[in-house]
Amino acid sequence: MRYGYWMPVFGGWLRNIEDEQMAATWDYVARLARRSEKIGFDLSLIAELNLNDIKGVDAPSLDAWSTSAALAAVTERLELMIAVRPTFHLPALLAKQAANIDNISGGRVSLNVVSSWWAEEAKKYGVQFDQHDDRYARTSEWLDVVDQAWKRDHFSYSGRYYSVTDLVLQPKPVAKPRPVIYAGGESEAAKELIATKCDAYVMHGDPPERIAPKIRDMAERRERKGLPPMKYGVAGYAVVRETEAAAKKEVERITDVKQNAAGYKNYEQWLANTQLEQRVSLEDYSVSNRGLRSGLVGTPQQVADRIGEFERAGVDLLLLQFSPQLEEMERFAESVIKPGAVVARA
Known about the structure:
By secondary structure, the protein is of the alpha/beta class. It is built from twelve helices and twelve strands. An eight-stranded parallel beta barrel has the order 1-2-3-4-7-8-9-12, surrounded by four helices. Helix 3 links the parallel strand 3 and strand 4.
């Protein structure tokens, strides 16, 4: 199992708690990144939104790409999974940016390709907002251009959404054959695109028994296409305490939902513009990405046992959220990662 975490570029993950003691500042994320790679974390996902969908649109949020470039220069081994939304970036220009950051990092950049869901943000920033399946058609072309720009020069492409002529991109990325491309989605259009053109599939939080058939489905799609196996990641919100009662008490605190929170309107927009396989609850509203559904709550051994279940389901990567991030990551590393207790008891 590899351990990743969401970089708190929004100042936290809990929509109903205003101050989580992790400010959306460069100083905080730089300190967090440097510390995380020393205590056993392998990867950080840097989300891309120009507005803050957790704390409300008037709250600060850090830019994903300039933040990632700076993090590449101050870290040594942490993989930087940078989220990117095709509607906000021309593919050849994004391929150039990503290749440059990959060179700065020594080959540690990967992409998390996200088809935009937030209509209000697109309108505020003057960006085209496509309907759901149209977004995936655009993303498919976008991925073609990025992939070829990274692999060869004097490349031309003419599609419905994008065109390039005799493209030359130097320097190429350090990562070969290309930086890893992750993506997630639960609609048929999303899953078919990801199985065809990406390297790894990332999922919202769910228990292992729901994750296992999703992995089997994607593995079968890849096999039918004659493509190599994918990697699989799952989001999760982790609460580790000395006793199960203490862990449950913390969950009760963070899921005390207040529907007048500033982020609730944004959450409703996300639901309206996203195709999900199951209904979401107000508890899912409290913690982003259905993180609590992964069940990483309890004593160190209980959490380690749960991680073992995910491993047996085929999961390679956990994308974790914590609050407050630095303190809880230290606790998780000390009690779960460091002991190597991730193999569940028989």
